[in-house]
Design a protein that fits this description.
heterodimer, A: 228 residues, alpha/beta, globular, B: alpha+beta, eleven-stranded mixed β-sheet, two-stranded antiparallel sheet, 17 helices, 13% strand, binds adenosine-5'-triphosphate, binds magnesium ion
Chain lengths: 228, 506
């Protein structure tokens, strides 16, 4: 099974003059971590949106966990996404008025698949993930998310992406708001957790200093042949 | 999902609270108006039960009903005892109860009547009057008084208490008859009708007050005593001439209630009165008119009845005391189908200008008059509800922009746009439901607080009745309106989440 397999993906934003994405082939094995770098505006976030099925992609171009993303539609695609993909954004990852632990458990409330894979006690799993990511303090876990530091919030987001062992985690510059030391620590922890869980990780950034934490790095401009 | 919505609302509890308050107030208002209206109708309908016909000096039927049954305002100048006897002797009449009015006891109306009142009066769908303590008039003599439950409670009256009544029907008693006290013989059990706020005295006792009153008055036409000049004209009109206006007046009874009410006021106050055109003036002055007329009569005419009246004064034969003038007669019929025939006979009786009022018809007429105000109140209550709904839409819509991020996160963890749509609808439903509950609580509290006031002032008892079907329907309509209103922000959110995808550019 391949967590991610892309073949001849062509995507153009509605109304755009050129294709934003033109990707020949890209695939990830289970537990593999890939660092994707490229300059701003080259289409990295667009690629992640396409993989997550947020934008309409042609049939057969993207397979996540051997399932054709372009072939599922509507609400089924949302359910498919949460079943197989964990996501981490640049900023504002959390629902501010839910506690850290509740934020971590969100995928389990929307996906039976993820809940089952989170074990008998999803909350215990969530706490374990938080403590592995350096948020062992139980008072932190029950704090509303908007009372956490940005670094803490990103680690909560990582725990949420990891819970229930999805096949693939998409991380879109999750470290850009962190300082150098926190950045390295965060990426290191994330890559290790993914490897342990057997989750493939697609990490997007323009900061090449992080590349050494990953199994391999790919230049987006080289990958995206005819793209913008 | 419900828990999630509630948490989300709790996070915005200030604005959410205001929205709930607005909806709650509108619910309380809508139900309150309905309850007030139903309470008024019930208590009025209850008060009038058991009486087939009310005969009184010619006048507006609503006014006669209000005066005789509810003790509000007064009737025209008194009708003669002859007319009462004529009525009583009619073959279709089962019973007739004479009523005198125009005095008050600490602001509560005093009714002069005889023991037959307690025998025949029915309230609340046919229940007879019961005593909480003491006895009715029987064998008590002329100075017996029976008081309603509310008066007894308010002033702490019990059988044996001596009370003094005052002239006129207003709250302000300017002419207290302390030379003619009454001894309470009985206290009525609570009825929940106007009877609770009435004092009943014997016909003889009622007359005694006024008989004694005339003694100190050297000149009954003394302008210091009453503005009697006007009333002379009025008296003439009522007592004597078959006035041309009477035709018009009859038309009036059949026709539009409201317009004629004014016309009727003019008529009642006497065509000569230009200073009496305001309805309030008229009501306040009414009782005095009666008594003036009465005094006039007693002082002026050397009438046989007057002598008879003098004879009876001081004797113990209270029951067959025959007053000169009475204000109204309650009539019960042997066969209720004869009511229209009797009504016609009364209207056509040449010696007195009388009106025969069917309580049910007069009530319907009254509701016709108050209907406009009711509709206005109801419209206003629903307008407040609409404002509450708009407030909710504004609140939900205004927060959507700041919640875009929240929705994007939810979508990234698998919430479908439909679910987010549902989230908004559930929030609106929760707000509306909370508003409904708050409204019911407010209404209950308001009922508790205002019930004593309403019952004291107007004899209205709202009670904490269980919801009627119409109230449930109103609640249901409001709830549905809340759901419908929530579609506005929900559809917006649906579109927004589809367009935004997972990343919101702030
Ligand atoms: N919602 C959208 N609608 C239309 N065009 C878009 C949309 N989002 C992105 N684009 C276009 O797609 C191209 C790639 O944008 P994208 O956000 O993928 O860049 P990126 O590589 O993630 O840049 P950065 O490193 O700054 O985040 C840009 O030219 C942008 O204008
Ligand atoms: Mg980007």
């Amino acid at each position: 099974m391949h967590p991610l397999r892309i073949e001849r993906l062509v995507y153009r934003w509605p109304g755009a003059e050129r294709n934003t994405l033109e990707i020949g082939a890209l695939s990830l094995a289970s537990g593999e971590s890939l660092f994707l770098f490229g300059p701003s505006g080259c289409g990295k976030s667009t690629l992640l949106s396409a993989i997550a099925g947020v934008v309409e992609v042609p049939k057969g171009a993207i397979r996540v966990a051997d399932q054709d993303v372009g072939a599922v539609h509507g609400g089924a695609r949302d359910r498919f996404r949460v079943d197989h993909i964990g996501m981490i954004f640049q900023v504002f990852n959390l629902i501010p008025w839910l506690s850290a632990i509740e934020n971590v458990l969100l995928p389990c409330t929307y996906s039976r698949h993820r809940r089952v894979r989170a074990g008998d006690n999803p909350e215990g799993t969530a706490r374990r993930l938080l403590s592995e990511l350096g948020l062992a303090d139980p008072s932190l876990a029950s704090k509303p998310a908007n009372e956490l530091s940005v670094g803490q919030q990103q680690r909560v987001a990582a725990a949420r992406a990891l819970i229930g062992k999805p096949d693939l985690i998409l991380a879109d510059e999750p470290t850009s708001a962190l300082d150098e030391a926190a950045k390295a620590a965060f990426v290191d922890l994330l890559a290790r957790e993914c490897a342990e869980a057997g989750t493939a990780l697609l990490f997007v950034s323009h900061d090449r200093s992080l590349e050494r934490h990953f199994d391999r790095g790919v230049d987006f401009l080289a990958l995206n042949e005819g793209g913008a | 999902m419900l828990g999630f919505s509630l948490r989300s609302l709790w996070n915005r509890r200030f604005v959410a609270g205001l929205t709930v308050l607005a909806i709650g107030l509108s619910v309380a208002l809508i139900l309150g108006v309905e309850r007030l209206r139903d309470g008024a109708r019930d208590s009025f309908a209850n008060s009038a039960s058991g009486i087939d016909l009310i005969v009184a000096p010619r006048g507006n039927s609503v006014q006669i009903l209000m005066a005789t049954v509810f003790g509000v305002g007064g009737t025209g100048t008194g009708m003669t005892w002859d007319s009462f006897e004529w009525l009583e002797d009619r073959p279709e009449v089962a019973w007739a109860v004479p009523i005198q009015m125009g005095d008050n006891h600490r602001g509560y109306p005093v009714i002069g009547t005889d023991a037959s009142y307690f025998e025949h009066f029915r309230h609340s769908g046919g229940q007879p009057l019961a005593l909480a303590a003491g006895t009715f008039f029987t064998g008590e003599g002329a100075d017996a008084a029976v008081v309603g439950a509310e008066i007894a409670v308010r002033f702490g009256y019990a059988p044996g208490t001596v009370i003094v009544n005052a002239h006129g029907s207003g709250e302000v008693s300017f002419d207290v008859h302390d030379e003619a006290p009454f001894i309470i013989s009985g206290v009525l059990a609570r009825t929940g009708t106007a009877v609770d706020r009435m004092v009943f005295v014997t016909l003889e006792g009622f007359d005694t007050i006024h008989a004694q009153e005339e003694t100190p008055l050297a000149d009954p036409l003394d302008p210091a005593a009453m503005p009697s000049d006007d009333h002379d004209a009025h008296d003439d009109h009522e007592a004597g001439d078959e006035h041309e206006d009477h035709d018009a007046h009859d038309d009036h009874e059949a026709g539009d209630a409201h317009e004629d009410h004014d016309a009727h006021d003019d008529h009642e106050a006497g065509d000569a009165h230009e200073d009496h055109d305001a309805h309030d003036d008229h009501e306040a002055g009414d009782a005095h008119e009666d008594h003036d007329a009465y005094d006039d009569h007693e002082a002026g005419d050397a009438h046989d009845d007057h002598d008879a009246h003098g004879d009876h004064k001081g004797t113990e034969a209270g029951h067959d005391h025959e007053p000169d003038r009475i204000n109204a007669v309650y009539v019960g019929l042997i066969d209720r189908t004869s009511v229209l025939g009797l009504q016609r006979a009364v209207n056509e009786r040449p010696s007195d200008a009388l009106s025969a009022v069917l309580p049910a018809v007069a009530l319907a007429e009254l509701w016709g008059i108050t209907g406009t105000a009711e509709r206005a109140m109801r419209l206003m209550a629903w307008a407040v509800a609409l404002a509450g709904m708009i407030g909710m839409v504004v609140m939900l819509s205004a927060t959507l922009d700041t919640r875009r991020r929240e929705f994007a996160i939810l979508r990234s963890v698998g919430a479908t746009p439909a679910r987010i749509f549902g989230l908004i609808v559930i929030e609106a439903a929760s707000l509306t439901a909370a508003g409904l509950i708050l409204g019911l609580v407010l209404l209950t509290v308001a009922t508790f607080v205002t019930d004593p006031i309403l019952s004291a002032r107007f004899g209205l008892r709202l009670g904490l009745n269980v919801f009627g079907a119409s109230e449930l329907a109103a609640l249901f309509v409001i709830f549905c309106a809340g759901l419908l209103a929530s579609l506005v922000p929900a559809v917006r959110v649906y579109r927004m989440t589809l367009a935004d995808g997972l990343s919101v550019r702030l």
